[in-house]
Amino acid sequence: MSNLREYLQQKREAWLVRLGRDPQTVTPLVLRAQATAEGRSGVRRIRIRDHQVISDSPDDFAGYDLGPSSPELLLGALSSCLTHIFLIQAAELQIPLDRLEVEIEADQDPRGGRPGYEAVPFYPHNIRYTVYVSSPADPDEIKALHDAVEHWCPILNLLRMPQDLTGRIVHTPTRSES
User: What digits encode the pLDDT tens for the residues 75-102?
Assistant: First the structure.
């Protein structure tokens, strides 16, 4: 048996415990992330819980290429979420997996929005994913798995569905340098 199949057994046990919780005792979460621009380099240090991730720009955009760009991190978050939900749903549906890999691609044109390219999006678009699965399950089971993932993946649905998003700025005046 592959290590992934063994992991799916552990995932199923944990998932069943979560499903068995009394909904009255579960409270909604507030997810938080913070990014700080580092001096002299512009590197963005992202803090999420007790974790840190570095985001940077390629050298042709005044970066040092010390980490993925923000659009790349978004695609990475989507690939991670899809992979995780595939694991959860495979565990719940008891579909054995020997290999699981999710690849995300998107198009982004740096000319987008500029003169002569006003109609070209400057943000990642045409997002698409490919899932590579090795499993002894039959094609109908794999289709059911994919359908469940499409239904339950939070980041996939976040990107597909319109969201409310608000922003505010807190300005702390400082002395100008002479």
Answer: 999 999 999 999 999 999 999 999 999 9
Q: The pTM is what?
A: 0.89
Query: What's the N-to-C CA distance of the chain in angstroms?
Result: 69
What letter represents residue 157's amino acid?
Answer: N
| Distance from C-alpha of 153 to C-alpha of 102, rounded to nearest angstrom | 13
Radius of gyration (C-alpha) of the chain in whole angstroms = 21
Specify the pLDDT at position 39.
87
**The pLDDT value given to residue 11:** 93
SS3 at position 129:
strand
Report the b/e string of 35-69 with b at 16+ CB within 10 A: eeeeeeeebbebeeeeeeeebbbeeeeebeeebbb
| Residues 68, 44: Cα–Cα separation, whole Å | 10
Gap between the Cα atoms of 5 and 94, Å rounded: 10
Residue 1 pLDDT > 70? no
Reference 149, options 80, 86, 100, 83; nearest CA is 86
Give the C-alpha separation, 83 to 81, whole Å: 5
Identity of the amino acid at 42 = G
